[in-house]
Structure formats: structure tokens, C-alpha cells
Design brief:
hpI Integrase, Chain A; 13 helices; two-stranded antiparallel ribbon; 334 residues; 49% helix; mainly alpha
Length: 334
């Protein structure tokens, strides 16, 4: 068996996990991408019986040399998939060993899980720009304006709900459990929306319920579309109930980033996923407990600590100087 044949068989095997609900379609796309690097590192025609435990030992060096900007954590994830593949080959009797040896990758603690997040000023710019981006003045064509209005509301929902990109893009109207108006401590009306995140769209394959601000964004999305049946996608294409294409999502994102002057957004790795990161860091800034965030965002407390627990110096100073009292209900009042 050749390496190319093993890769194809391995991917088909992992595709069965999608059907079984063990991994998401998005995860399978990632695995396919990782396997393409395997076939660039080694010849497609290489026979599996020619491999040994050290065949991929210098994979990290090759990866970073040939793909400038590749992060250590990315390589580590790819190496995990490579070992899953050789373990599969071993169990099928194609290989005589079950694990490759790799150079040890050391990731500094302060770099573990670092995410690209908007500053408060950048997010404020983004929200302001969304208004002009979706205005009648900028969109003479009605179909284009409706699409941009949809993108505007998608950004606002994402940055309030902490949803992952796949969870957001696959929302259906049946996932909207309720929208209600509540009043905050200053007696301001707040529109809360309750969203059911289906297990099949979630990275962890576990359903959860999210309650967040932004009910008004969902309501105006519903007013602008003809497709409001339970199984219709919330973010549907302008021509039907199929989801808006990834190409369009990314094209609009490019327009938004360039529109607010972040020309290096690709280098900074500011993507749609950054809205989730921004939402989580805002909760941390506001003093929401990691446990509460974990329930809403569908992420473990330990991952929150490692990924988002690095406050900047100004946040630390603010936290250290914060005064608080506890009211009769046991609620902390700042």
C-alpha cells in the first residue's frame, strides 16, 4: 500500500465518524488539510512498509521552513493526526508500528492557546462600520443590501453569543427557543435570546443552551427573510434556504477588515472565530466566572484558563483596584 492510498482510506474512515456524530464536518475538513501536508512531506508513492518510527521526526522543521508563519501548536495538532493515521494503519496490518517519533515541541505557557482578539477600539470601529457597510447609500442593489444586513446581524450575534463559527452558520429557526425582554440593574430594557446549540453542529458533540443579549438582531433577521420554517437556516442565501456560501462569508469579512483599516488581519489571524474570542474575553473583563462561561460557550474551565486567562496589564490593574460589596441577595455590586 502507498502513502497516498493510506491517506485516502484513513480520510474515508474518519468520514464515518461524521456520520456517527463523533466529529463535525468542519473537523473532517481540517483532517483532510493536515493529510495534504503529509503527502507534501513524503512522496505519495512511498510504500507504507518503507516507513519507520523516525520517518516524520523532522516534520516540524520542514513544516515551518516551507510554510512561513506556521505555529507550533498547529504542527502539534497535525502530528497528532499523523499518529492517528499510522495507528489506523497498524491496526489494519499495513504498518509494523503504531506511533511516529517527533522532535519535542515546547510551547511557552504564555503562548498556549493564544487567540487573536479585537481590541475594544477595533470592535467599536467594526460595529460603526457595519452601519455604513449595510446602508442604502453603499448598497443600491437590494439583494446585496439584504445580504450585508444579514452579515451585520451575524457579527453582532456572534460577539454576544460566544458561538463557534460552525454553530453560528448552521443555526436554524428551530434553534431559537425564546426571545424575551428583561431589565438590567439600571432599568434598561435588554432583549435576551435563548439559543439551542445542536450536538451535531457542536465541536464537542454536546448540545447546550445559550442565553445572551441580541434578541433584537434575531427578530430583524426574521423580518427580512421569507424563509422562516423550523428547518430553514437563519443565515440563508438570498436565493433560497441553502446556507450562504463560505466564499461569501469570507469575502464580506475581508471587506469589513479592510473597511476598518486592519490590513494585516490575515497575519494577525483575525477571523470570524475572533468574534467568539472577543465575546469570551469581554465576559472575563466583566468578572463573569469561568464556570458560567464554560456552560455558555461549551468549553471546559481548564481550557478557558489556558486560552483566555492571560489578562493584559491594564486589566490586571483594574481588577486589583476594583471595589465591591455584596447586596442582600448575595450579588456582588461593583
Amino acid at each position: 500500500m502507498s502513502l497516498s492510498e493510506l491517506v485516502t482510506e484513513f480520510i474515508n474512515w474518519r468520514a464515518e465518524d461524521v456520520d456517527a456524530g463523533n466529529i463535525t464536518k468542519g473537523r473532517l475538513v481540517t483532517i483532510k488539510s493536515q493529510c495534504r501536508h503529509v503527502l507534501k512531506f513524503k512522496s505519495e508513492s512511498l510504500k507504507i512498509n518503507e516507513l519507520d518510527r523516525n520517518s516524520f521526526y523532522d516534520y516540524e522543521v520542514w513544516r515551518k521552513k516551507n510554510f512561513i508563519g506556521t505555529q507550533s501548536v498547529t504542527v502539534k495538532n497535525e502530528q497528532a493526526t499523523i499518529n492517528q493515521m499510522i495507528d489506523y494503519a497498524y491496526r489494519k496490518g499495513y504498518a509494523h508500528f503504531a506511533k511516529f517519533e517527533f522532535r519535542k515541541i515546547t510551547i511557552k505557557k504564555d503562548k498556549i492557546g493564544r487567540r487573536s482578539v479585537f481590541s475594544l477600539e477595533e470592535y467599536d470601529k467594526l460595529v460603526r462600520f457595519l452601519s455604513s457597510y449595510s446602508s442604502k447609500k453603499q448598497c443600491v442593489d437590494e439583494a446585496l443590501r439584504n445580504e450585508r444586513l444579514m452579515i451585520r446581524d451575524a457579527v453582532l450575534i456572534a460577539s454576544n453569543s460566544m458561538l463557534r463559527v460552525g454553530e453560528l452558520w448552521q443555526l436554524k429557526w428551530s434553534d431559537i427557543v425564546a426571545i424575551e425582554t428583561r431589565f438590567d440593574e439600571q432599568e434598561n430594557a435588554v432583549n435576551l435570546v435563548t439559543i439551542n446549540v445542536r450536538a451535531e453542529t457542536c465541536k464537542t458533540r454536546t448540545s447546550r443552551e445559550v442565553i445572551c443579549r441580541g434578541g433584537e438582531y434575531v427578530e430583524r433577521l426574521k423580518k427580512r427573510t421569507r424563509y422562516i420554517d423550523a428547518n430553514d437556516y437563519i443565515f440563508a442565501s438570498t436565493s433560497g434556504t441553502t446556507r450562504i456560501s463560505k466564499r461569501k462569508w469570507y469575502a464580506h469579512w475581508k471587506n469589513l477588515m479592510e473597511g476598518i483599516g486592519i490590513e494585516d488581519y490575515a497575519e494577525r489571524k483575525l477571523t470570524w472565530y475572533s468574534l467568539r474570542h472577543f465575546a469570551i474575553t469581554c465576559r472575563i473583563r466583566s468578572g463573569v466566572s469561568y464556570l458560567d462561561i464554560s456552560h455558555l460557550a461549551g468549553i471546559s474551565v481548564s481550557n478557558i484558563e489556558s486560552i483566555y486567562g492571560h489578562w493584559d496589564s491594564e486589566m490586571k490593574k483594574t481588577a486589583a483596584m476594583k471595589n465591591f460589596a455584596i447586596d442582600k441577595s448575595g450579588i456582588i455590586v461593583h
